[in-house]
Fold:
Amino acid sequence: MTNFQTMAQVKAANKAIGHHWFERSTMRFFNSVIESGLLRGRFFITSERRELDFPKRYTVRRAQADGSIETVGTFQGYSDIELARIAVHIAQPQVTRGAL
Structure:
């Protein structure tokens, strides 16, 4: 499996397949912020909140080789970014059938 070197590569791959995951309007709609750089060549962490006065919750994301983005584990599954970082370090590089 090929790893990405930068988040810019992930964003370009996502756009190349016609997805809108990183577009400003999409990120704003979900109150989503990219909270990390690229981790382990495939992972990154986002934060989301229902409303701007709600606390941030963190989600681990995995960029697939084709540029699609998957959630690893549970959406908003972490209340602390350090817990999300730990999850990245134990996450599998590729989802196996039925793993999520």
In short: The CA atoms of residues 25 and 82 lie 27 Å apart. The beta strands are 33-34, 43-48, 57-63, 69-72. The two ends are 19 Å apart (CA to CA). The chain has one domain: 7-90.
